[in-house]
Amino acid sequence: MEQTNGFYDFCIPYNKDDKVLRGLLNELVELGYKTIAIEQSFDHSKKEPGKRGSEMFPEPHNIENIRQEFANKLKILQRITILYVDVNVSHAMGVSLNLRKFNLIAGQPKTEAALTHCCTSFNGDIITFDPTAGSRLLVQRKPYLIAVRRGMYFEIKYSPAIADSNNRKDMIKVAQNYCTKGKSRNIIFSSGALHEFQLRGPYDVANLSYIFGLSENQGKNAIDRFCRQLFLRAESRRLGKTIMFVKGNGPIVFSDSSDENQSDHDVPDEMDALVKETTSEEEPERECSQANKRLKVA
Amino acid sequence: MVRIKNRYIAVQIVPYAPVNTLRLNDHTLSKCLLQNVEKYYGVYGLGILEHGFRVKYCNERTKIAIIRCLHRGHRYVSSILPLITLIGDVRAKFRTLYVGATIIQCNKFIINHQRQFLDRMMGQVASAKERQDLFKRVMELDMDR
């Protein structure tokens, strides 16, 4: 399976300004994060419902150069946050191809009905909420338990809580609601920081769990183990039912010798490419493995 | 043997704009912390915490401080550290390095931490004189108080 290391921060908002983004990432490296996700938000309710079937979701931003710059310091994922009101979104998500290019999918419901839908049948990984809108939306017990059983994770962003005291109160209210309704299961922390000054170290974040009503263990897991589980779940959603995960380490070689062909027939159909590992230099290897993954996903 | 359990929290202060020294001493730091505890937990939190609370060590050049508090109340301090953005009159944030039960362990950790920092920075400094200065600046640690 794909290797990821702790600690995780699954919400870094994308910034057009390269300098700001770079500053954020440098600070993250400094604080000891290893896996992060760059967030891109998309408002589904603003789209006119006229055209159907066509692509609704945007392409992921091109961050190849940043990825290369932080190649062995950070693992950078991409995440989309879908803001929505009605349940039509699930159809659009079913037909979308662009959506599969994102590593993580988060839902941000705007109404009570959408929140229930998000917990029960949303085809994503994370349920988040709008920190500036206040605490009008509080999750009910039943949808919460269903979401936990489906393996979805609830996200708490901490940087709005640092910036403003009204947001802080709402954030504590929402977090304590998770605590009363279902013992704060399946909760992850992420930053959502717009500026590097709003970022905090992983242990600081784990300490914040005290005011959010989580136990010490849950707080630690919320930035480490649960995020790993979430990542694995997201990968399995992207790839479909998977028993094995084969990743090429070198260029793909379709072997033509009879011996190799024989063994080719034995393997299940999912592994359509027999990948042969060859010892080549470091740089092409990485590129190839990237291209290989694309091929599988598309 | 029964003894009073303490917790020692080693923190680093990261200012908003990089400066060489912070105008900061034990007194202002502890006042700032207690004020913030009162702001978030009210009089109750202050009552639990105030006995046994002390800033044991505060170095304004390496920007590292050690806070002592009773074991019972240490989560009141550690949970509000991320929320503080103003220390004294400087915009700065706290970064928790270590929480230990004895000051010796904290000391060991800080020395290790500074050494790692030094290893990273040494490569970027050109002249030998500057290197010595840097070494002196980073590894300074007077625990005689």
UniProtKB/TrEMBL annotation, chain A:
Q: Among the entry's GO cellular component annotations, what is one?
A: nucleolar ribonuclease P complex
Q: Origin, by domain of life?
A: Eukaryota
The record's Gene Ontology biological-process terms are: tRNA processing
One of the Pfam families matching this protein, by short name: RNase_P_p30
| Alphabetical keyword list | tRNA processing
| Name used for this protein in its record | Ribonuclease P protein subunit p30
Task: Indicate the family of this protein.
Answer: Belongs to the eukaryotic/archaeal RNase P protein component 3 family.
UniProtKB/TrEMBL annotation, chain B:
Q: Where in or outside the cell is it found?
A: Nucleus, Nucleolus
What role is this protein assigned? Component of ribonuclease P, a protein complex that generates mature tRNA molecules by cleaving their 5'-ends.
Indicate whether Cell cycle appears among the record's keywords: no
User: Can you provide one Gene Ontology molecular function annotated for this UniProt record?
Assistant: ribonuclease P RNA binding
Task: Output the lineage of the source organism.
Answer: Eukaryota, Metazoa, Ecdysozoa, Arthropoda, Hexapoda
Which gene produces this protein? LOC111599540
Q: For this UniProt entry, what's an example GO CC term? A: ribonuclease P complex
Instruction: Write out the similarity annotation.
Output: Belongs to the eukaryotic/archaeal RNase P protein component 2 family.
* Pfam families listed in its UniProt record: RNase_P_Rpp14
Q: Which organism is it from?
A: Drosophila hydei
Q: Where is it mostly found?
A: nucleus
List keywords of the entry alphabetically. Answer: Nucleus, rRNA processing, tRNA processing
- What this protein is called in its record is Ribonuclease P/MRP protein subunit POP5
Instruction: Tell me which positions the record assigns to the signal sequence.
Output: none
Which GO terms fall under biological process for this protein? rRNA processing; tRNA 5'-leader removal
